[in-house]
Amino acid sequence: MCGIVGYLGHREALPLLMEGLKRLEYRGYDSAGVAIRHGAGFEVCREVGKVASLESKLGQDPSRYRGTEGIAHTRWATHGVPAERNAHPHADDKSGIQLVHNGIIENYQSLKKALESKGHVFRSETDTEVLSMLVGELYEGDLEAAVQAALRGVTGAYAIAVMCAKEPGVMVVARKGSPLMVGLGNDEFVVASDPSAIVAHTTQAFSLDDFTVCRLSREGYRTSSLNNVPVTPKVMELEMKLEEIELGAFPHFMLKEIFEQPDALRNTLSGRIDLKRGDVVLGGLQSSGPDLVKARRIVLTGQGTAWHAALVTEYMIEDFARIPCEVQYAAEFRYRNPIVEEGTVFVAISQSGETADTLAALEEAKERGALTLGMVNVVGSTISRVTDAGVYLRVGPEIGVASTKAFIGQVAVGALMAIYAGRRRHLSIDRTRSLLEELESIPDKIRQVTSQSGSIRDLVARYVDRENWLFLGRGYNYPVALEGALKVKEISYIHAEGMPAAEMKHGPIALIHEGMPCVFVAPKGSQHDKVIGNMQEVRARGGRVIAIATEGDEEIIPHADEIIRVPEVSEALSPLVTTVALQLMAYHAAVLRGHDVDKPRNLAKSVTVE
User: In the prediction, which pLDDT does 244 show?
Assistant: First the structure.
């Protein structure tokens, strides 16, 4: 949520900054702005709406924005409505400070009162302007020192980039709880909250750690703590490739990422399956694997799609490894005085590795003595650095706000972890080999589902005008029903609810009315007959049954109005194929309703505030 781009070097800054903002649009925002060093000061331009609107405004007088140093930002409103006065960058009223900020300053009100008592006049409702004023108040000729001093008095989360009119050729950046990277080019620096805004210019970069400040200048860079103790960053090679974040022949990133899932899943599984030994190889768990196997209890946590992946993983861990397991919303875990006993393993699941709620829950679990594991996609992300061990998803960059291939990666990694622990507890080598062989076959089966995109679109077109949908499933496909409903809500803005199929008759059946679309995730499995019974209950009340059913399942035909076929897969692994059909349903529903699929309203890709 929100995006920062900064540039200090020898090239014109504005084109690079605007390109970076466009690459960060997927993160979610409602306004944008830039500040370019020009002459003895800055030229600032801010605009509500899309980056394209800002670009148009800049184009009215492009000569004003010539310069080789600048910062830019996309804002997702927290403090103050979306308005030009609240857009970043924010200036102080004393020292020529320009500042952009992601995160939330929790003690901004007390800081604001103190600054107002010293005569500072505020022009916005934001916490960010308070921070810019604080830096300006503390400035005594050294921007780095002023930023360090200001942040020592701040409570909350931040990633910031700061410039000062009195110090040309200098930019200071810092972070705590919100991601920020520094890309190292040839006599230039590119700062961004996401590698997608850096990779076109350099593949050498480092992530700032919490409570770290970095001073960039034309002579080089220096990193330090808030108390000015030198810190040595770890420079890494960015694994992201530029073509991975380009649309190519697809109209939307979401559709591209749905179709990328076979290859993404192969990457997730690559090198982690040893069929000869009938075992799973997870290098990230090399030191902590024995503790996972001996766990007395496993707690899985996440938010949104990651929470749904956790539910599927819970089923698999209890099924394959026979370890008691539970799933909790990360946002609730920290505040409910949770019980963390000896032998508890805590697994944090997040695509970005920066989800604020999940990080807060992780910190609480660590404080109470749990072994902490991470399941994330972004290499070097905060969760990957603060957990005791973990497994990367390796599905590649996910640009679409509505998660698709990350969910598939999370479920696959959950399966690998469950099989890993199960093999060391009670799974036979034959059963293990069977599961692993089937996992390796899933990418081709996903491709069979994506090949039906056109027919799924035609089906959805018959129901896209209905404002209320129900998604139902049992067992392993109950979380899939939740995920399908979430996708429809996120991008098509249709009201959709997911629930266990058996729960419907305990109240929600009252909602069923003539023509209401009811999507049943109903592949062959242990509860197939029960699901058919639930279908009959819906049809008896006038609802329209759309079934996600196994190829060759003739029994389901009399009970469904529409059928989407998926390849036959064992019950435990079926979410890896049934989910794809629901992703395509949601995508086509959004397109047919004329919505921006990749940038749905009010949503951000990475939720970095609680």
Answer: 76
Paired with 36 in beta bridges are: 43, 70
Instruction: Quote the number of domains for the chain.
Output: 3
Domain co-membership, 239 together with 139: yes
Cα 497 to chain centroid, rounded: 22
113 is catalytic: no
Active-site residue (options: 22, 112, 176, 605): 605
Flag whether pLDDT at 609 surpasses 70: no
The pLDDT tens digits for 175-207 are 998 889 999 999 999 999 988 889 889 989 999
CA distance 364 to 358: 10
Distance CA 583, CA 405 (A): 10
- DSSP assignment of 68-132 equals SEEEEEEE--SSS-S-GGGSSPEE-SSS-EEEEEEEEETTHHHHHHHHHHTT----SS-HHHHHH
pLDDT category at 1 given cuts 50, 70, 90 is low
> What is the dihedral angle through the alpha carbons of 43, 34, 51, 32, rounded to the nearest 10 degrees?
-110
Query: In this structure, are 63 and 171 located in the same domain?
Result: yes
User: Residue 342 falls within a domain, yes or no?
Assistant: yes
The pLDDT assigned to 62 comes to 87
Tell me which of 208, 243, 278 is where a domain ends: 243
Q: What is the pLDDT of residues 13-27, one digit of tens each?
A: 999 999 999 988 877
The answer to the question of residue 607 being in a domain is no
Claim to verify: residue 269 and residue 363 sit in the same structural domain: yes
Could you give the 3-state DSSP secondary structure of residue 214? Answer: strand
Cβ–Cβ under 8 Å, residues 203 and 238 = yes
CATH number at residue 361: 3.40.50.10490
Q: Which domain does 416 fall in, by range?
A: 247-451
b/e per residue, 575-603, with b = 16+ CB within 10 A? Answer: bbbbbbbbbbbbbbbbbeeeeebbbbeeb
**CA gap 593, 18 in Å, rounded:** 29
Residue 125, judged by CB atoms within 10 A of its CB (0-12, 13-18, 19+), counts as middle
Would residue 2 show up in a list of annotated catalytic residues for this protein?
Answer: yes
Q: Is residue 606 part of a domain?
A: no
In angstroms, the CA 474 to CA 486 distance is: 17
Mean pLDDT of the chain: 93
Whether pLDDT at 360 is above 70: yes
Q: Return the exposure string of 299-338: e unless at least 16 CB atoms fall within 10 Å of the residue's CB, then b.
A: bbbbbbbbbbbbbbbbbbbbbbbebebebbbbbebbeeeb
In this structure, the answer to whether residues 203 and 287 fall within a common structural domain is no
Q: Where are the beta strands (DSSP E) in 109-211?
A: 156-164, 170-176, 181-184, 189-192, 204-207
Whether pLDDT at 57 is above 80: yes
* 436-492: pLDDT as tens digits: 999 999 999 999 999 999 999 999 999 999 999 999 999 999 999 999 999 999 999
Rg (CA), the chain: 25
Q: What is the pLDDT of residues 312-349, one digit of tens each?
A: 999 999 999 999 999 999 999 988 888 899 999 999 99
Cβ count within 10 A of residue 500: 17
Query: What's the rounded Cα separation, in Å, for the pair 134 and 162?
Result: 12
Torsion of CA 369, 375, 376, 377, to 10 degrees: 160
